[in-house]
Write a structure and sequence with these properties.
Largest sheet: 10 strands, mixed
GO molecular function: arylsulfatase activity; metal ion binding
Order of helices and strands: HEHEEHHEEEEEEHEHEHEEEHHEEEHEH
CATH class of the largest domain: Alpha Beta
Protein name: Arylsulfatase A
Number of domains: 2
Shape: globular
CATH topology of the largest domain: Alkaline Phosphatase, subunit A
Strand order of the largest sheet: 9-8-7-4-10-1-11-12-2-13
CATH architecture of the largest domain: 3-Layer(aba) Sandwich
Keywords: Calcium, Hydrolase, Metal-binding, Signal
Radius of gyration: 22 Å
Strand content: 15-25%
Organism: Aliiglaciecola lipolytica E3
Pfam families: Sulfatase (PF00884)
Number of strands: 18
C-alpha cells in the first residue's frame, strides 16, 4: 500500500511538472505574404525591411521548405486549424465568402479545441474566413451587395455558430477582406470601423490578451493565441505612420506595417516574461497576390516570391511555399537555425499534440505529421513522405522528396500561362519537376520520367481514396474528389 501511495504521488508530481512546462503557443499568420517578403529569407532579392521578423528568425529556426495546403486563403486556414486538407470538404475550389455554415464541421477536432481540452485558454485576433452566419433580431441575414460594395451587417448582429463554437474562448476580428469594416467581439458585431484601423485594433487586442494571461501562464495555465493578420492582403491600407517608409510603394509599406505589428506582439511576450516558454510561429496563408503589383516591385529589385515561380492561386511553389519561422527557446535545439526538410502547415496540429503529450484520435488530423524531431535533433530525417498542393481552381499537385507533379498544363491559377492558355499552346497535360535541381520549375521532365509520373499519381489517388495521408484506418471524405479537373479556367 505504501509503495502504491508513493507511486501515485510520483505520477502526480510528473503530471504537475509537465503541465507547468507546457508552452504557450502564439501563431502569427500573415495574409498573402510570399516567401520572399521576409528579408532574412530573401537577402539577395528582397528589398522590403522586416527587422522584427528578421530578429525572430535569428532567435529561432527558419524552415525553408514549408508549404500551405492551398495557394489561397480559406483552405490554408482550414488545414492549419484541423490538420486536414480542405479539398476533403465541400470546398473543392476557391474560398468561402461568409453568410454560410462554418467549413469546419462541429464534430471536427481543431488545434484550438485540442488545446482547450488540455486546459489552455484560447483566442483568435483578426481574420476568420471559414464561414459563419449572422443573425439579427431573430432572422438569419443574407449578404447584401457584392465585392467591394458588400454591406456590413448591423451592429449587435449575432453569430450563433463561429469561432466560439469551434474551440476559441475569445474572438476579436472580422470574417474576410471584403468586409473588414465589421468588427466582431466574441459572437457579436460591436462596431463599424475604417478598414485601415482593423490591423492596429486586432494587434492591440493581441497585446492586451498576452498581458492579461501572463501571470496565469507563469503559474502553469498556458494560452493559445492565433493572430490572423488581414495584411498585406487587399485592401492595401497602411496607416499614416507607415506610408512612404519602404520607398517601394504602398504595398511594401503594408508589408513593413505587418512586420511592425508582429514585432509589437513578440515584444509583449518578451516584456511579460513569456519568451522562454512560448512557442511562436510566423507564417502566411499563401504566396504574394498579383494585387501587390509584382512587376512594379521587381522593377525596383524586390522579388516577392524570391527565386520561386508563381504567386497566390498557383500550383507552382510561389503560390504555396511560405515563410515559416519558429521560436521556442526552452524547447528547440539552439544549434539548429535553418531546417530544409519538407513540412506543411497542416503539420502544426500533430506537432503541438506531440509537444503537449496529447494522443490525437484516429479520426482527426488526417493529414498532419509531427515535425517535432526537426526542432530537437541535429540530424533528423524528413518526417513527411509527401505533400499535396491545391490551387484556387481546385487543381492538384503532389510532391514526394525532390519530385513534384502538377496535374495541370499551366499555373493552375491566375499566373500565365494559365491552364486555358497552356492548352491552346499545346503544352503537356502534366508537369514534373525535380525541385532540388530546378527550384524555379522551368524544365518539365514528365515525358522523360513517365514511371515517376505514374507513381506520383498512384500515391495521390491513395491519399484521396483512404481519406487520409497519415497511417491509420481509412476514413471518408466529405465529398467526391476529382483529381483530374478538365474545365479550363482563366
Amino acid at each position: 500500500m505504501e509503495k502504491f501511495i508513493w507511486f501515485s504521488l510520483l505520477l502526480l508530481i510528473c503530471h504537475a511538472t509537465s503541465a507547468a512546462t507546457r508552452p504557450n503557443i502564439v501563431i502569427l499568420f500573415a495574409d498573402d505574404m510570399g516567401y520572399g517578403e521576409v528579408q532574412a529569407l530573401n537577402p539577395q532579392r528582397g528589398k522590403i525591411p522586416t527587422p522584427n521578423l528578421d530578429k525572430l528568425a535569428s532567435e529561432g529556426i527558419v524552415f525553408t521548405d514549408a508549404h500551405t495546403a492551398s495557394s489561397v486563403c480559406t483552405p490554408s486556414r482550414y488545414a492549419l486549424l484541423t490538420g486536414r486538407y480542405a479539398w476533403r470538404t465541400r470546398l473543392q475550389r476557391g474560398v468561402t465568402s461568409g453568410h454560410a455554415d462554418p467549413l469546419i464541421a462541429a464534430e471536427t477536432l481543431t488545434l484550438q479545441g485540442m488545446l482547450k481540452q488540455q486546459g489552455y485558454h484560447t483566442a483568435i485576433a483578426g481574420k476568420w474566413h471559414l464561414n459563419f452566419n449572422y443573425e439579427y433580431e431573430g432572422e438569419v441575414l443574407s449578404p447584401e451587395g457584392k465585392g467591394k460594395n458588400i454591406k456590413s451587417p448591423p451592429i449587435n448582429s449575432y453569430i450563433p455558430d463561429g469561432p466560439l463554437t469551434r474551440g476559441f474562448d475569445h474572438f476579436f476580428g472580422f470574417h474576410h477582406a471584403r468586409d473588414m469594416r465589421t468588427l466582431i467581439r466574441d459572437d457579436k458585431v460591436v462596431e463599424h470601423i475604417d478598414v485601415q484601423d482593423m490591423l492596429p485594433r486586432t494587434t492591440d487586442f493581441a497585446v492586451d490578451y498576452i498581458r492579461s494571461q501572463a501571470e496565469s501562464a507563469k503559474k502553469g495555465n498556458p494560452f493559445f493565441l492565433y493572430v490572423a493578420f488581414g495584411s498585406p492582403h487587399t485592401p492595401i491600407v497602411p496607416t499614416k505612420e507607415w506610408i512612404g517608409k519602404s520607398g517601394l510603394g504602398k504595398y511594401a509599406d503594408f508589408v513593413m506595417m505587418t512586420d511592425g505589428m508582429a514585432g509589437k506582439i513578440i515584444e509583449a511576450l518578451n516584456e511579460n516574461g513569456l519568451k522562454e516558454n512560448t512557442l511562436v510561429i510566423f507564417s502566411s496563408d499563401n504566396g504574394t497576390s498579383k494585387a501587390a503589383d509584382v512587376i512594379q516591385l521587381q522593377n525596383q529589385g524586390h522579388y516577392p516570391s524570391a527565386n520561386l515561380r508563381g504567386l497566390k492561386s498557383d500550383l507552382w511553389d510561389g503560390g504555396h511555399r511560405v515563410p515559416f519561422i519558429l521560436r521556442w527557446p526552452s524547447g528547440h535545439n539552439r544549434k539548429i537555425d535553418t531546417q530544409d526538410k519538407l513540412i506543411g502547415l497542416s503539420d502544426v496540429m500533430a506537432t503541438v499534440a506531440d509537444i503537449t503529450d496529447y494522443e490525437v484520435p484516429e479520426n482527426a488530423a488526417e493529414d498532419s505529421i509531427s515535425f517535432l524531431p526537426l526542432l530537437q535533433q541535429d540530424e533528423a530525417s524528413s518526417t513527411r513522405e509527401a505533400i499535396v498542393h491545391h490551387s484556387i481552381y481546385g487543381k492538384f499537385s503532389i510532391r514526394q522528396g525532390d519530385w513534384k507533379l502538377l496535374l495541370s498544363p499551366g499555373s493552375g491559377g491566375w499566373s500565365k500561362p494559365n491552364d486555358k492558355q497552356a492548352t491552346k499552346a499545346f503544352l503537356p497535360a502534366v508537369q514534373l519537376y525535380n525541385i532540388k535541381n530546378d527550384i524555379a520549375e522551368k524544365n518539365n521532365l514528365a515525358t522523360q520520367y513517365p514511371q515517376k509520373v505514374t507513381a506520383l499519381i498512384t500515391l495521390l489517388e491513395s491519399y484521396v481514396e483512404r481519406g487520409r495521408s497519415t497511417p491509420g484506418k481509412a476514413l471518408k471524405n466529405d465529398a467526391d474528389i476529382d483529381i483530374w479537373k478538365d474545365e479550363l479556367n482563366l
